[in-house]
UniProtKB/TrEMBL annotation:
Keywords attached to this entry: Disulfide bond, Hydrolase, Serine esterase
Name of this protein: Cutinase family protein
Domain LysM: 3-29
Annotated Pfam families: Cutinase (PF01083), LysM (PF01476)
Keyword Ligase assigned: no
Organism for this UniProt entry: Streptomyces rhizosphaericus
SUPFAM superfamilies recorded: alpha/beta-Hydrolases
Length: 305
C-alpha cells in the first residue's frame, strides 16, 4: 500500500471492478475489515463499515447484500473517482439510459452514443419523449461500454463466460441513478432504456433494486438486447415485464433467436468489426434508428399515462 490509498483502490488493484470482489470480500470479511481498520482505511459504526473516499457503507449482512439492497455508485475506472447522479425533480419525466458496446460519449450526445450526423436509438428515443422540449430530463450512464470484440470475448460460449466488468459497473451506476430519481415526487415518470450492452446494463441494474424502488419505474425500452446464443444476465423482474418493450431487428445476431448457429456466428464476426465494415455488411445490430425509437417512445408514453 502507498500513502493515500483507500481500501477500494487496494482491492480493485488486485480484484478488478467486476463480479468477483464482493464475494471475495464477504468470504474474508473479518480479516479484511480488521486489516482495514488497523491501517486507517475504514471505520465501523454498529456493524456498518465505512470506507472513506469510496461512498461505500457495508452493512452487517456483507457487501453482496449491501449492493443488492442499497447499491452505491462505485469509482469510475476511467477517471478513478466516484460518479454520482444528482436527482433532477424539475421534469415531468426522466429517462435514464445506457449506450451500447464501443459507443463513445461524443460531444453533445449526453452519453447516449451516436453522433450528431447519426444519432443513436437512445438519442432519438429521448428526442421523441422530450416533446415539448424541456418536458423530459435525461441521464446517460457514464460507464466504459467496452468495445464489441471485448464484450463478445467475455460473453462467448465458453466456461469462462461472464458479465463484463464494464457492464457490472454500469449497472451499479444506473441503479444508483434510479434510486436518486425515485426520491422525486411520485408524479415524475421514470423511464429506462438500453441499447446492446446497455440493455444488459439495465437488466443487471433492475436486479439490484428492491420492489419499492422498481415500482417507481413507468417503462423500459431495450434495443438489441444480448440474449443469444445463451441468455446472459438476469431476466427483467416479473413486476416490470408488462412495462418493458424489447426491440430486436430481424436478423440481428445479438438478439434474434431464429438464426442458425452458423449464420449467427458469421454475422457476429462481421458485426464485431464495427465501423465501416458494419455498414458495408449491413449488420442488423446497427440498424436501430427512427422506426424502433418511435415504437419504443409510443410504448413508454402509454405506460406513463
Amino acid at each position: 500500500m502507498v500513502p493515500g490509498d483507500t481500501l477500494w483502490r487496494v482491492a480493485t488493484r488486485f480484484l478488478g471492478t467486476g463480479t468477483r470482489w464482493p464475494a471475495i470480500y464477504d468470504a474474508n470479511k473479518s480479516m479484511i475489515e480488521k486489516a482495514a481498520k488497523n491501517h486507517g482505511l475504514a471505520s465501523s459504526d454498529h456493524g456498518h463499515w465505512i470506507f472513506p473516499g469510496t461512498r461505500i457503507h457495508v452493512g452487517p449482512g456483507g457487501l453482496l447484500n449491501t449492493l443488492r439492497g442499497r447499491p452505491q455508485p462505485l469509482p469510475n475506472p476511467e477517471v478513478g473517482r466516484p460518479v454520482t447522479h444528482p436527482a433532477d425533480c424539475s421534469k415531468g419525466a426522466f429517462l435514464i439510459a445506457a449506450r451500447g458496446s464501443g459507443e463513445t460519449n461524443n460531444e453533445g450526445q449526453q452519453d447516449l452514443g451516436g453522433t450528431a450526423k447519426k444519432p443513436s436509438a437512445l438519442t432519438l428515443l429521448f428526442n421523441d419523449l422530450n416533446s415539448p422540449v424541456g418536458s423530459t430530463g435525461v441521464y446517460g450512464v457514464p460507464y466504459a461500454a467496452v468495445d464489441a470484440l471485448t464484450f463478445l470475448s467475455d460473453t462467448g460460449p465458453s466456461r469462462h463466460r461472464r458479465v463484463p466488468d464494464s457492464t457490472q459497473f454500469g449497472a451499479i451506476q444506473l441503479a444508483a441513478a434510479v434510486r436518486a430519481q425515485a426520491e422525486c415526487p411520485n408524479h415524475q415518470k421514470i423511464f429506462l432504456a438500453g441499447y446492446s450492452q446497455g440493455a444488459l446494463v439495465v437488466r443487471e441494474a433492475l436486479a439490484l433494486l428492491p420492489p419499492d424502488v422498481r415500482s417507481r419505474i413507468s417503462g423500459i425500452a431495450l434495443f438489441g438486447d444480448p440474449i443469444v446464443p445463451r441468455r446472459l444476465g438476469p431476466e427483467v423482474p416479473a413486476d416490470l415485464a408488462g412495462r418493458t418493450t424489447s426491440q430486436c431487428a430481424d436478423g440481428d445476431p445479438v438478439c434474434d433467436p431464429s438464426l442458425s448457429e452458423v449464420s449467427r456466428g458469421a454475422a457476429l464476426a462481421l458485426c464485431g468489426v464495427g465501423g465501416l465494415a458494419g455498414r458495408f455488411t449491413r449488420c442488423r445490430h446497427f440498424s436501430y434508428s427512427g422506426g424502433a425509437a418511435d415504437l419504443a417512445a409510443a410504448f413508454l408514453r402509454a405506460r406513463g399515462q
